[in-house]
Amino acid sequence: MAKTKHYLAQAEPEHLDLVVRGGRIVTPDGIREMELGILQGTIVQVAPEIHDTTHATLEANGRYIFPGIIDAHVHFNEPGRAEWEGLAHGSLALAAGGGTCFFDMPLNSEPPVLDAAGLREKRTLAEQQSCIDFALWGGLVPGNLDKLAGLRDVGAIGLKAFMANSGIDSFPRVDAKSLYEGMKRAAKLGLLVAVHAEDDALAAKFTAVQKAKGKKDAKAWLASRPVEVELAAIRQALEFAGETGCALHIVHVSSPEGLALITEARGQRVDVTAETCSHYLLLNDKDVAKLGAPAKCAPPIRDEQRRVAMWAELRAGHIQTVGSDHSPSPPDMKTSKDFFAIWGGIAGVQHGFQLLMSEAIKVGGPSGPALPMLAAVLARNVARRFRLDGRKGLLTEGHDADFSLVEFGDDHKITADELWTRHRISPYIGRTTKARVTHTYVRGCPVWADGGVASGAPKGQFLRPVI
Hints:
The chain has 2 domains: 98 residues, Urease, subunit C, domain 1 (Roll), CATH 2.30.40; 319 residues, Metal-dependent hydrolases (TIM Barrel, Alpha-Beta Barrel), CATH 3.20.20. The chain is built from 13 helices and 19 strands.
């Protein structure tokens, strides 16, 4: 296993802090054998060979230097529900999977982030506990429209709204009027709005049908959330975005039909982007029946035909970003015999992206088009959409030195013992991956190295969009 080599330096101010040698840099445009020169947390050189004197060298030894993954969709549940996960555990697990930045959702923290004071409180906690950089979502709910300007002023990355029941009483769903008015205000404020797109009335209707039959198993849960529930909400959100001019981000799109609606709207110049999540590309409905509670989420995992179609949409460029929607909970919330009562959330922040890499390289191998495609949807596109691309998302001069080293080898079987999340629950336990993150660096500092926490890991910095 390669180690970071530190050299005693009779240093002058212009000496580099770190040179990453012998690696293959992954960019959305291709893979290049290049070296990185880093000074004060910033990439200052990208060249075939760097001869400047350096304080330290990281020997990549042929591994892939992947841009730092920006996970725009996590629930680390702090303050208020740190026993579900917490910022320290969540950020470290993400770093172990190649992540260098996360955007924490306004729920399931308690209180949720619905105003400037709530965002400031969470920011303070994250600055104390996160080992990687972060941004924070504000909420859009009925009754907080007058708080949106305050959220913008303290640096919210965007506003999140639920079009269906969120499962959290303090974070109610938006009715059509509140969503429309919220999007209208957000457009004036220059804020992006993200929506959980499921139609609440349709979900209630199909749920009632299953419960009337006395059905409580995983199959009944899947039947209570057919694709129609997702499509109805996407249509409404797209209509509102077109009318208000609001920038819209539809999170965790689970179906190719949903992506088709979004792609059509983009063709009509609606300012909308689509996010999907690792689990919609890795799991199918039969996995839900087999795995049970660890694979429950909303929208639910779809059938194998749709899973394969989602990969085709990804390769066609119809998915702009991929996140984890990491939504953990304590084990006792995952044990009911009534599948409807189980907390719906997939804990996959550590291995989901590595499994995507492993799956993607089945076509063309590591040196083919797969890794550049993933570099776009996991890093560059996220930074662009959320206006952080002045410093994040690419391995290029002038950007933060955020990256991971990824190696591809024999199949590795994922075990519960290697999870860094607070609760060792994941639908990926038992799966195998050929991709493995060996190092993760944030602003030129090691956070994760050789299977463990790097000594002297930095504290995360708060990121705010350029408006």
